Every structure is written in structure tokens, then in C-alpha cells.
């Protein structure tokens, strides 16, 4: 496998070409071991650890745990926004397998940023839509940044499935919270990412809407061959939806505080 890895020098930016679609729709997307992050140093430090994690394309995974256990931190690690602790193995099977831990070690910030832009979509708790842009512009922003055409069959399908066709010329302030979340899902998926990360995407919604939004997120992402990772404290909803789950437990270390995320099934 090593010879197929993207190199970590400047050429890696080319290896992770923006116009190469994340074409496979099956197989592994992420394989990681000893993935971790540490806040602070010494006795006041807090460590978030994921001993092993494998995520397939088309799969939906929930990350659950108490407030402060480190769910958002795991999303940041998976979203290439936080460098893993030394010792991590972290492969992301984008258009080609990429050794993410090696990119961090090589401080290949440009390549990481390009991968983040091309391969990852984010849904935040309260939408995170840009208030000065219309719904249409919000949905199109990642595509615009990547130089992709504004409209295509994918956008038309998302708009129809999310039932936001009548909202396209409005601004976020003119939308209900549930409508904002549906637009946020459209924005996260519009550029065809391989991985969609959602941080508490349903916790600001009433139960009926929460189920609908989570269901839409899962179904639309899976349909496009993306993997979805949802950080949530709503363990009951995760179980009701039958999602695979990794759950936080206290870190088993005498000298520091932290959480360890392991398979809960
Ligand atoms: N700069 C920092 N220094 C020390 N600890 C920090 C720092 N930033 C975050 N933490 C700690 O890291 C832990 C993980 O935070 P994180 O936001 O990932 O948890 P979470 O499970 O997503 O929480 P929530 O559900 O409340 O959003 C928390 O206990 C937090 O106090």
C-alpha cells in the first residue's frame, strides 16, 4: 500500500487534485489507530483518545458521550482540523489513499487544507450559514471555492430532497431553525464530499424535526456514497435510528484526565 500513498511534499497538493472526484462509493474511507489529541500539559491536561476506528463509505457513525467528553475534538481530528498526537496511524481513502498522520508530521498545511475543502462537508449545531448570503449562495459556497459549476444534477436533487426549492432566495434570518438545518445539510453535501461531519446537528430541534433532519442527513449522504459521522449527546435517538456508535468512557490512565472512544455495539 505504501507505494500508492500520496507523497507529502508539495507534489501532494497535486496528488489531491480538486477536479478528481471522490469517485468510489464503497469500501473503506478512514482507517485509524491510536488517534488522539491532548489539551494543555501536565496535571491540567485532557486527552481524547480513539484507539481504533474504521469507517466505510456509505456508513453512518455516531460519536456519543457526555458534554465535555471530547466528541467535537474527535470530529476535528477526522476533519483534518487538529493534528493527532504522535504515534497515530490515519489513512483517508480519498481519490487515492492518503497518509493523513504523515501530512501533519510534514506540516503539509496546503495539502491538508485542500483535502479538507474537497473531501469533507460540515454540518454545525445551528446551521452555521453565512447570514449575508442567500440560501442559494450558501449552498453553492463550497462549490464556488472549489471552482465547480454552481448548478448541476446533484444540487437539483438535494434541493428537491431537502424541500428547500421555495427558500432559495431567502437569507438565513428568514428561515426557521429546521429550515436552516436542511439548508446546512445541502451546503455540506453540495460539493460531493467523501466525509460529512455533523456536530450536534439535531439538538436545537424538536424531537420530530430532529428525527427528520438526522434521517435526511443519513439517507442523502449514504445515497451519494459519503460516510457520515454525527457527534451527539442524544444516545436514545442514535439507538432508535440503529446507528453504529462509538462512545466515550473515562481514559484509563493514572496521571491524566481524558476520554477514550470505543465501539459501543
Ligand atoms: N484549551 C483547552 N485546555 C484544556 N482543556 C480543554 C481546552 N479546550 C477544550 N478542553 C477540554 O476538552 C474536552 C473536550 O471538549 P469537546 O468540546 O471536544 O467536548 P464535547 O464532548 O464535544 O463537549 P460538548 O458536548 O459540551 O460540546 C472538554 O472537557 C474541554 O474542557
Automatic annotation (TrEMBL):
Annotated protein name in UniProt: Putative ABC transport system ATP-binding protein
SMART domains: AAA (SM00382)
GO biological process, one term: lipoprotein localization to outer membrane
UniProt cross-references to Pfam families, sorted A to Z: ABC_tran
Family assignment from sequence similarity: Belongs to the ABC transporter superfamily.
Residue span, ABC transporter domain: 30-260
Statement: the UniProt record of this protein carries the keyword ATP-binding: yes
Annotated signal peptide: none
Domain of life of the native organism: Bacteria
